[in-house]
């Protein structure tokens, strides 16, 4: 589904618009003028549905040259191996995420906890995938589009948001950093960190995106900073933004 001149949603489960496997995060596709990149990959149980959605848009999957991961959680990186092989695309992420996904380090990306919580099915098997590390603030070029990664931890280790500038608008692929109505996602897992989350909210407020594209829930095509401002209002009064769990 095309949502912007240069952006499509090609995967999304029950926490989004329901066009691919129910456990998929929202998978965005960026059009760099004939060369494409995916942001995240979904869980990897039925990656063909994502490929079919791309095909329905009339886009040749061989034109997808890169897959950019926001973080290593299964619903975001589990489809990396299937999609990268189908598209012959390389996969990129911040260093920690690159290490976890490349080595199939299921403990570091809390797969067991997600299965126990019922977020993923009991028979879910995570598939490792080679990932090339990116540095914080690194610029990544897809055709005529530049994406910049920002380290935005708190939800988990190695989480990054991707900033894209197009026609004087700032667009932010925000992963699991911020959601509808200023919610955050703190979970009972080893690498959730409130202090880092507050720093992330401040970073996002500084970026002040016009368009906000989270990996779950609704997205904003205008005044994208609204959800971030909502979280910051709470933080400014020494509170903790509302929590969206199990994402
Ligand atoms: Zn996550």
Word description of this protein:
- 26% of the residues lie in helices and 24% in strands.
- The mean pLDDT is 97.
- It has 247 residues and is of the alpha/beta class.
- A 7-stranded mixed β-sheet has the order 1-2-3-4-5-6-7. The protein has a 5-stranded mixed β-sheet with strand order 8-9-10-11-12, with no helix packed on it.
- The longest helix is centred in the last third of the chain and has 14 residues, at 194-207.
- 52% of the residues are buried.
- The chain contains 7 helices and 12 strands.
- Helix 6 packs across helix 7.
- It has a single domain, classed as 4-Layer Sandwich (Metallo-beta-lactamase, Chain A), CATH 3.60.15.
- Bound molecules: zinc ion.
- InterPro entries: Metallo-B-lactamas, NDM-1-like, RibonucZ/Hydroxyglut_hydro.
- Pfam families: Lactamase_B.
- This is MBL fold metallo-hydrolase.
In short:
With 247 residues, the protein is an alpha/beta fold.
CATH fourth-tier homologous superfamily: Ribonuclease Z/Hydroxyacylglutathione hydrolase-like
CATH architectural designation: 4-Layer Sandwich
Each distinct ligand: zinc ion
Helix and strand pattern: EEEEHEHHEHHEEEEEHEH
The overall pLDDT average reads 97
* Shape estimate: globular
Question: Unreliable stretches, pLDDT < 50, 5 or more residues?
Answer: none
Biggest sheet architecture: 7 strands, mixed
SS class: alpha/beta
Which CATH class? Alpha Beta
Extended strand count? 12
CATH topology descriptor: Metallo-beta-lactamase, Chain A
Protein name: MBL fold metallo-hydrolase
Domain Metallo-beta-lactamase: 24-216
Organism: Mediterraneibacter hominis
InterPro entries: Metallo-B-lactamas (IPR001279), NDM-1-like (IPR050855), RibonucZ/Hydroxyglut_hydro (IPR036866)
């Amino acid at each position: 589904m095309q949502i912007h001149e240069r952006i499509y949603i090609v995967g999304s489960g029950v926490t989004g618009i329901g066009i691919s496997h129910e456990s998929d995060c929202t998978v965005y596709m960026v059009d760099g003028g004939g060369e494409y990149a995916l942001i995240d990959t979904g869980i990897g149980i039925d990656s063909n549905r994502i490929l079919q959605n791309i095909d329905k848009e009339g886009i040749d999957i061989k034109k997808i040259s890169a897959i950019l991961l926001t973080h290593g959680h299964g619903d975001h990186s589990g489809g990396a191996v299937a999609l990268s092989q189908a598209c012959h695309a390389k996969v990129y992420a911040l260093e920690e995420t690159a290490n976890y996904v490349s080595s199939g380090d299921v403990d570091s990306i809390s797969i067991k906890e997600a299965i126990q919580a019922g977020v993923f099915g009991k028979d879910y098997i995570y598939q490792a995938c080679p990932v090339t590390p990116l540095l914080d603030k690194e610029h990544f070029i897809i055709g005529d589009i530049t994406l910049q990664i920002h380290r935005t931890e708190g939800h988990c280790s190695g989480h990054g948001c991707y900033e894209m500038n197009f026609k004087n608008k700032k667009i932010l692929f925000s992963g699991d950093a911020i959601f509808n109505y200023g919610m955050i996602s703190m979970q009972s897992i080893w690498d959730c960190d409130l202090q880092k989350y507050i720093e992330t909210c401040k970073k996002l407020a500084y970026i002040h995106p016009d368009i906000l594209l989270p990996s779950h829930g609704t997205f904003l095509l205008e005044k994208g900073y609204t959800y971030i401002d909502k979280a910051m209002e709470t933080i400014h009064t020494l509170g903790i933004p509302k929590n969206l769990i199990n994402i």
